[in-house]
Amino acid sequence: MRFTRLSTSIATVYKPSYKHISRRQHTTSSPAAIYHDIWHNEAQPGDTVYVGMSGGVDSSVTAHLLQSKGLNVQGIFMRNWDTRDERGECPSEKDWQDVQRVCQKLDIKCHQVDLVKEYWSSVFSVALDDYARGCTPNPDILCNKEIKFGVLLHEVTRRLGSADWFATGHYARTIRTARCADAALCRGADEKKDQSYYLSRVRSRALRRVVFPLGSLSKTKDVRRIAKYAGLHNADREESMGICFVGEKRRFDQFLAEYIPQTPGDIVAQDGRKLGTHQGLFSKTVGQTAGIPGWQQKWYIYDKDIATNRMFAVQDRLHPLLYTNDIVAESVHWISGSAPKGLETNDESGLDLTAQIRHMQQPQKCTVKRTSADSIHAVFENAQFGVANGQYLVLYDGDHCLGSAVIKQTKPQ
User: Exposed e or buried b for every residue in 154-193, given b needs 16+ CB within 10 A?
Assistant: First the structure.
């Protein structure tokens, strides 16, 4: 594989603008010519690239753009959920049909890889254990780490042979720096679509083979227009907003109740009054409305007690118990493989960074200190609402995603 090592700092490198591209509403130029300035220097005509395809417009345009550049493209569809076990709706079969249709249009090979068992053991069962303990995990982050950029890469290489690159339709960017021999992860240029949050646990050795062709594009201004230009049937397909194994028409707590035994417990006020009953610690998360009948004003969950199987609620959404400036997180993962300067030892003063606790959240200023080799302590400039154990604290230095840690403890205001 060919790599271009960049010596400039990560804060200034590779910030292309797509605004001038988006204004070209009427053009006869090919996509390869129009988008020439956004390509990663590493990918070259003739290289083989496997593209993870879901049937949606993003991965379809990814395959089209790579093909337009002269790469040998093959589509890979990952099947990770057995619809026979699902009583609701899961569009995996329809998605596979869409992938086949797009690949036929582009005249490229497509393959389906069955990873149902791997997904169950490495993602779903792990998430279930966390939910049962009252935590709030993110299966999508775990899936990217363990499956899409882990098992899938290995399995595809084993079955089809090695490739120069692996590509997906994520809105993110990778660059090479002197500090990170493999690759550094950066935000996508489209702030409304940036998906670096979901990639914050991916290993650097996997990223070195990855390209994100959509990283410098706008979903609404560029990607859908390219899809129409290419004659792709899914150019106007709506985005899937639900987790595949749940579907978009089901309540998440009802789905979890099919896999986690219900253990009803009390919902209590700060003064100890019983307000109502929950069906299990998994059924509500911190910051969520408690859904207690008989009250005109909403109650909000601010804490859970595993030992007594109780949830605690307050009535005012602005109540200090729902907010925190102080977060302790463990299971730290640094994408580069090592902690950044300022967090290499426990006795350092720390780093001023930004962080996200959930996807699409505006970057939040915080000071991060290392408390052990596996844990960090973050103090935020502004109070954060509804922070739950099990959520991911994703850290950034500018647009550079450093990695993430699992939230273990919060201190109310």
Answer: ebbeeeeeebbbbbbbbbbbbbbbeebebbbbbbbbbeeb
Burial of 4 (0-12, 13-18, 19+ CB in 10 A): exposed
> Quick one: pLDDT band at residue 99, thresholds 50, 70, 90?
very high
User: What pLDDT, on the 0 to 100 scale, is given for residue 108?
Assistant: 98
- Determine contact, residues 109/119, Cβ cutoff 8 Å: no
**Mean pLDDT value of segment 190-210:** 93
Global confidence as pTM: 0.87
Residues marked active site are found at 143, 244
DSSP annotation of 37 reads: G
Using only the alpha carbons of the chain, give its radius of gyration: 23
Lowest-confidence region among 17-26, 132-141, 249-258, 312-321: 17-26
Supply 188's token pair.
């996508």
Q: Which CATH superfamily is domain 322-412 in?
A: Translation factors (2.40.30.10)
Assign domain 261-314 to a CATH class: mainly beta
Domain-by-domain residue ranges, the chain? 19-229, 261-314, 322-412
Residues 232 and 105: their CA atoms lie apart, in Å, by 7
Q: 19-229 maps to which CATH number?
A: 3.40.50.620
Q: What is the pLDDT of residue 34?
A: 41
The residue count of the chain comes to 413
